[in-house]
Amino acid sequence: MKLLIINGPNLNMLGIREPGIYGTEGYETLCRMVLDHAAARGVEAELYQSNHEGDLVDRIQAAYGNTDGIVINPGAYTHTSVALLDAVKAVGIPTVEVHISDVSAREAFRQVSYIRAACAATISGHGLRGYLEAMDLLIGDRA
Fold this sequence. Notes:
Blueprint lengths: L1 E6 L11 H4 L4 H15 L2 E6 L3 H10 L6 E5 L8 H10 L3 E5 L21 E4 L4 H11 L4
Parallel strand pairs: 1-2, 1-3, 3-4, 4-5
């Protein structure tokens, strides 16, 4: 089984950007956690991060036919990107939306998720562990 873990804008700044909201662990820590979790579950995981919407769309499209599940934290594009929604719908790969913070308890504009309509589940407010929970949802009985 192959999982693609996609991170959108500013997630490369974890540990630096608003640590009171997103925590003090850096992006490298997240990557290590994800790869270690995948290895422990016997699955392959690829991480991808971009600050550019079109690059994220291209990576989702490239997953077609060779990826079994997507974990996506679209960052700010959660609240604005019909293009990401359409890309996830187009490839038909089971996808779980993840947010480090509890977006439902934040500003009103952050409570809107365009991509949610194409996702099997949303995990929000569980910190970096939310990524591992999303992976486990996609792995299902294989864990």
